[in-house]
Amino acid sequence: MVSRSYSNLLELASGDSLTFSRAEKRLPRVKTVAGLLTEIDDETSNSVTSDAPSSISQDRIIIVGNQLPLRAQRRSDGNGEWIFSWDDDSLLLQLKDGLGEDVEVIYVGSLKEEISPSEQDDVAQTLLETFKCVPAFIPPDLFSKFYHGFCKQQLWPLFHYMLPLSPDLGGRFDRSLWRAYVSVNKIFADKVMEVISPDDDYVWVHDYHLMVLPTFLRRRFNRVKLGFFLHSPFPSSEIYRTLPVRDELLRALLNSDLIGFHTFDYARHFLSCCSRMLGLSYQSKRGYVGLEYYGRTVSIKILPVGIHLVQLQNVLDLPETEAKVAELQGQFRGQIILLGVDDMDIFKGISLKLLAMEQLLIQHPEKRGKVVLVQIANPARGRGKDVQEVQCETSATVKRINETFGRPGYEPVVLIDRSLHSYERLAYYVIAECCLVTAVRDGMNLIPYEYIICRQGNEKLDDVLGVGPSVPKKSMLVVSEFIGCSPSLSGAIRVNPWNIDAVAEAMDSALMVSESEKQLRHEKHYRYVSTHDVGYWANSFLQDLERSCRDHVRRRCWGIGFGLGFRVIALDPNFRKLSVEHIVSAYKRTKSRAILLDYDGAMLMQSSMSSTQNAEAVGILKNLCKDPKNVVFLVSGKDRETLDEWFSSCEKLGIAAEHGYFLRSSGNAEWETCVAVPDFDWKQIAEPVMQLYTETTDGSYIETKESALVWNYQYADRDFGSCQAKELLDHLESVLANEPVSVKSGLHMVEVKPQGVNKGLVAERLLATMKEKGMLPDFVLCIGDDRSDEDMFEVIISAMAGPSLSPVAEVFACTVGQKPSKAKYYLDDTSEILRMLQGLVAASEQAAKNATSQTSP
User: Fold this and answer.
1) Mean pLDDT, rounded, of the chain
2) Of 327, 352, 289, 560, the residue nearest 423 (C-alpha)
């Protein structure tokens, strides 16, 4: 049987028995819309589960990138046909090394070359059958707006910390370019949908060009197994928040199951943006970082990409490489080579490196004639005025340095600003004593990794260099602290590229390091780079993606939201939304009802700044209490005087103030305490500590109650407030260790209260009181919204197996929002809770009318 996994084109071309289940017939092409999309299409948007199960029995991964890992050219014999071949330098192709032999790979992306519409069908079929590539054909004008417009003028500069303070510094936000970006992402999504088997396939999306693609795929297939890796930096929240479509991009990324970053800094910035702009918090559990997003856990992966070792070693083995190394040895005989290899763009810091070289020659005249900086400047990927300015500045600086310090037979700076063959570039690595990377901002940068492998060399290159096989290899690195590979190179000399003097000093230090030190640093780096190659990176990412998608099957999912605000709600099968019809039906057929309601957050929004009662909620409670079959109890964290004033009209309403410390069974009853507390001397210890944190945390305040002290940071900076709350919790636990109190953290607050006081006591008191009166509840409704309400849920659920409830009791423990809870049901917000309670009131009123009509003559 022929495997569906092929390592190269030769395997695909050999044998007549090759079959490809999705290519045996011409695939219907999804229409490529040349226009701009302003909204996500509504068709098929209501999909809850995936389509019919796939017949594929083995793992398959669909890799999506801006460009396919292919090279294309026209035949030279005049018939004009296209010739395609693999691009061995493409990361998307190289990562296949980390996949198992039985993993089938499908590529989705665009082509660098423009294919005429008349040829697109034939080219698409050829690429699918021969290379398992699905091309996305983007109209040239749309692609220009997408790539050269939004990607390169807006996202790329912003992600590299360049704000559009003027038209010359990046591009001002242009809504038409954003629409083009969304349109192209939609076209890519359509191409993925042509080949995906959503129940079985994994999808791996790459880089900032396709950041909204996860939303399109999640909208169509709620349970799609989707990973995203960002290869650029992710800026700090202060930079990112300037982007007008910041929320749309964040929410789109959160439709992935796993989001990958090269460094912890990039991941930290992303998490901070999610916290500050979307109000999401993250947790770290057993080494894994995850964000809870509407019932789904979005995992965060931090792992820098590696290089393709085999490809590099194959190039090093070429005779052309040996010849080039020999040539360069002769050219630079008696000189020490410093090497820089960079793309010609504004963020690579080429001019800063040249200025540091100039400073080195000024401060150390003895280096003149001995040290040469070879700067390889790869052609720029983008285009624009900034690229031209960098080219002009680089040429002018090189000319000035060479005119000042050069002499016959010695040129301090050699600038190579043309495309080099791979073997030529690697030959320069081999002869360089030190490699310099002074980028001011770069997502990863694999130049130092390539340099280390080339300095390790092989036996043939050792012969060319005149080095014995037993001689330890050596290398030195000077790297910017602002590039992604810097944290993994602990033996490198890290520099701030903006500090010209420090970079010059680092260059001198690199040359002065002892031979044994160079060998130790090289050995350490080589051990890391050779074991953390691109295959290791890909395999590690896919393992985490598989783990992140493990519980997809058992989750119930449905989509909500419009446009790019779409997201999927995923819930445990046993945790479901409370149906108003269901609870009203149970309410009507029961005769002894216990209703326990949390007021703060459940019937009154937590974010509300109002200091008055919710009139609608008061009216509902008053009407519920009118039904003689109901015993209604309200629980609140507020003080008893406030609750007395707010609910004075509800005479039959039971109230628990300060989370259950004070209880009153009805409006006519006296307040009583549920826990005996001898004194509150501990307040004299806790309050000064809280005051200290209030003074240092703008927006925080202390809420003083009879039984408790609460430090609230609801209006403080979210991150700083959370950090201060952790410190305060630790501080209070320390100073109150010998006091009869408990210190707990909740939603935007830290509370100190007497031990044993919790809302569970209220639930126990309610059930005990009803039992004493001979009323065994056959209907129980308990609603809460935060961690403190879990005590009520626990008591109610435990009572189901005891004598406190009727054997046929119907119990509804309900929380607000989708989150881990002991409750079985949830409602989305306060408005839904009030609407549900209004339904119960309507049922009581209807029952009262019916009873009146039956008793009247």
Assistant:
1) 87
2) 327
What SS3 state is found at 442?
strand
Q: According to DSSP H, which parts of 132-174 are helical?
A: 140-143, 156-159
**Residues 6 or more apart from 410 whose CB is under 8 A from it?**
335, 368, 369, 372
Averaged over 598-617, what is the pLDDT?
Answer: 70
Q: What angle do CA 386, 391, 393 make, to 5 degrees?
A: 90
- The one-letter code for the residue type at 605 is M
Burial of 51 (0-12, 13-18, 19+ CB in 10 A): middle
Mean pLDDT over 369-393 rounds to 87
Q: Residue 502, exposed/middle/buried by CB under 10 A (0-12, 13-18, 19+)? A: middle
Question: How many CB atoms lie under 10 A from the CB of residue 707?
Answer: 23
Q: Span 204-216, mean pLDDT?
A: 97
pLDDT at site 53 = 36
Which secondary-structure segment (H or E) carries 218? helix 213-220
**510-547 burial: b if 16+ Cβ within 10 Å, else e:** bbeeeeeebeebbbebbeebbebbbbbbbbbbbebbee
Q: Find the length of the chain.
A: 857
Q: Which two tokens stand for residue 151?
A: 């990607």
Tokens of 31: 């229409």
DSSP-derived secondary structure for 553-610: TT-EEEEE-SGGG-EEEEE-TT-EEPPHHHHHHHHHT-SSEEEEEE-BTTTB-TT---
Taking residues 301-315, report their average pLDDT: 95
Parallel, antiparallel, or unpaired: how do β-strands 296-302 and 701-704 relate?
Answer: unpaired
**Token pair 């080949």: residue:** 195
Structure tokens at 753: 């209260």
DSSP state of 367: G
pTM for this entry: 0.78
- List alpha helices for 47-174, DSSP H: 91-94, 117-131, 140-143, 156-159
Spell 762-800 as b/e; 16+ CB within 10 A means b.
bbbbbbebbeeeebbbbbbbbbbbbebbbbbbbbbbebe
Nearest alpha carbon to residue 417 among 432, 442, 397: 397
* Residue 344, both tokens: 């010609």
pLDDT tens column, 614-660: 788 889 999 999 999 999 999 988 888 888 888 888 888 999 998 88
Q: At residue 82, what are phi and psi to the nearest 5 degrees?
A: -85, 140
Amino acid code (one letter) for 773: K
In the structure, what pLDDT confidence band is assigned to residue 78 with cuts at 50, 70 and 90? low
Read off the pLDDT of residues 410-427 as tens digits, 9 standing for 90 and up.
999 999 999 999 999 999
The residue that leads in pLDDT, 553 or 328, is 328
- CA distance linking residue 762 with residue 73, whole number of Å: 77
The tokens for 553 are 């099957």
How many Cβ atoms sit within 10 Å of the Cβ of residue 678?
7
Q: Give whole-number Cα distances, 647 to 277, 627, 708, 762, in Å.
A: 37, 17, 22, 18
Cα–Cα distance for residue pair 225/203, rounded to 1 Å: 6
Residue 268, pLDDT above cutoff 50: yes
Q: Is the dihedral of CA 487, 488, 491, 493 positive or negative?
A: negative
* Beta pairing class for 477-480 and 434-437: parallel
Rounded average pLDDT over 521-528: 96
Summarize the confidence of residues 404-409 as an average pLDDT: 94
Evaluate whether 630 touches 592 at the Cβ level (below 8 Å): no
Would you say the C-alpha torsion 88, 91, 96, 98 has a positive or negative sign?
positive
Amino acid identity of 141?
D
SS3 779: strand
Mean pLDDT of 463-475: 90
